[in-house]
Amino acid sequence: MSTAHIRNFCIIAHIDHGKSTLADRLLEETGTISTKAMKNQVLDDMDLERERGITIKSHPIQMLYTHSDQQTYTLNLIDTPGHVDFTYEVSRSLAACEGALLLVDASQGVEAQTVSNTYLAIENDLVIVPIINKTDLPSARIEEVRKQITDLIGCDAGEILSVSAKTGVGIAEVFDAIIDRIPAPDNRSDQPTRALIFDSMYDNYRGAIPYVRVFDGVIRPGTTARFFTHHQQYEITEVGHFVMKHVPARELSSGDVGYVIANIRDVEHIQAGDTLTIKQNQAAESLPGYKKMKPMVFSGLYPADSDDYEQLRQALDKLRLNDASILYEPETSEALGFGFRCGFLGLLHMEIIQERLEREFDLTLVTTSPNVRYQVKLKDQSLIEIDTPAKLPPPGDIEEIREPFVSAEIITPTDYIGGIMTLCQKKRGIYMNTHYLSTDKAQLNYQLPLAEILFDFFDKLKSISRGYASLDYHFTDYRVGNLKKLEILIHGEPVDALSSICHSEDAYHRGVAMCSKLKQLIPRQMFDVAIQASLGTKIISRSTVKALKKNVTAKCYGGDISRKRKLWEKQKEGKKRMKMIGKVEIPQEALLAVLQVENN
């Protein structure tokens, strides 16, 4: 087939603006899926996606559409996530496309992730087709939203389509726009073969399967695949396209999107962003790939049963094929044993990965409180990076600690500006500017410490704005802060899983709150358990879990009081010995106390 009849595109939008529903209508209209097999969010094949109503993974699929010119076109769609934590998935999808459908909710209008994803598409030189969705809603503000879109991308108002993905109104115009506006890929089948790996998955029987967009040349079964990041070679046994499942094909040529099976058993040999070439028609240079994302949130993942450590390692290896933004390295904790220090793009990303590990690989995990990565300048002028408080050097060796700052963009109805600005100031935010998108919608720009927005910022933002505000942020730089390490000691021993790095203004209040919370969560022992919060060598708060008391005098029904005193002294000596050698078991709820303190 000529590349003139191929269109590669993705759908980008803010969360819950109707991407998956529009994809459903496109699949239905092209007959890719039968009416009997049709269900809502058909591309969201993970239980988690259906339960939460969000797209977590990008989903490639091929459709055949007969246009009004009687030509049949091959449409390769890649459905993308909308939450800020999954921007990496969006960037990978954009690298494989020539165009993007920009979807905006007619009642919500332009939101934070709409702006962010639009800029990503512009950076990738994609043709943008703006679409207003949910026009059938009584609360739809079509003209107002049309003006917001023209201000955002500078297009003519007549170029913006109005559709209702739920009812199917305007879907024919969407197909026309895809074919007429989005350019066909260049036909470079005669060039040395180069294909960009934009995703991958692991099959227990067929090994690691890379998902590729072929830019140059042709990939056929029987040829030998080579990768630019390593020198391994694999014989290709099957290539094919994505319909509702993998459909084998004779070849993948320039412009095609598909999969390659080569019995690759070592999951580390497939890396998202790498270039696949063919030994028989080898390219000299790799494709530019796409910008790699740096993890923003770090947390420890430990198996509840220490025997599952190797199983957890294999699970992380396989999951990284499917989500290349995860970083992990082995870590040992005195309280939790052997595990991994993992890097995530945000809190939702961390939560989703933990749930996927538990569900897909049948693991029971213990997680530590999330942290950000700090830069520490030592007195010998060297600079180190730490992603856990346990790695912080002694206070005497530290000259300064730098914390990561992000540029946050908040889009909100104007009624809630005051409350949101107060929230940002409490979180040590630096006000930049306000831009009014319309008479009743504003864009606030702040610079905020990443550690301050980790835990409850998004929840409080939604609470203040009654759910109408949206947040997007990206890393800017590291800045010097008055930061201290807050340690929690239980029974005189520091617990690394409960330690945190916080601003000195918050340290005392957080220490008091942690001690009172842990007092409720740690079960009573046969001896008093002291819970202390310390800053360096200074104890700033203490609470005590009182000992369980056994009534040793129950058998004494009378006689002299000295009989009872003798038993009480004996009990006292026993408790003293127990306190010296006793160990305190800390439940998982107590290890998550840091998060609960933040949410109060």
Account of the protein in words:
The termini are far apart. The model is unreliable at 41-46 (pLDDT under 50). The chain folds into five domains: 3-181, 3-Layer(aba) Sandwich (Rossmann fold), CATH 3.40.50.300; 194-278, Elongation Factor Tu (Ef-tu), domain 3; 297-370, Alpha-Beta Plaits; 375-481, Alpha-Beta Plaits; 485-599, 2-Layer Sandwich (Alpha-Beta Plaits), CATH 3.30.70. An eight-stranded antiparallel beta sheet has the order 11-10-16-7-8-15-12-13. Strands 2-3-1-4-5-6 form a six-stranded mixed beta sheet, sandwiched between helices. Strands 21, 22, 23, 24, 25 and 26 form a six-stranded antiparallel beta sheet that branches. With 600 residues, it is of the alpha+beta class. It contains 15 helices and 31 strands.
Q: So, the CATH homologous superfamily of the largest domain?
A: P-loop containing nucleotide triphosphate hydrolases
Question: Which band does the percent of strand residues land in?
Answer: 25-35%
Q: Work out the radius of gyration.
A: 29 Å
Domains counted in the coordinates: how many?
A: 5
Tell me the number of strands: 31
Oligomer: single chain
Mean pLDDT: 78
CATH topology of the largest domain: Rossmann fold
Profile the largest sheet: 8 strands, antiparallel
Ends apart, CA distance between termini:
61 Å
> Which strand order spans the largest sheet, edge to edge or round the barrel?
11-10-16-7-8-15-12-13
CATH architectural label of the largest domain: 3-Layer(aba) Sandwich
The best one-word shape is: globular
In helices, the fraction of residues equals 25-40%
CATH class bucket of the largest domain: Alpha Beta
Kindly name the structural category: alpha+beta
Number of H- or I-type helical stretches: 15
Low-confidence stretches: 41-46
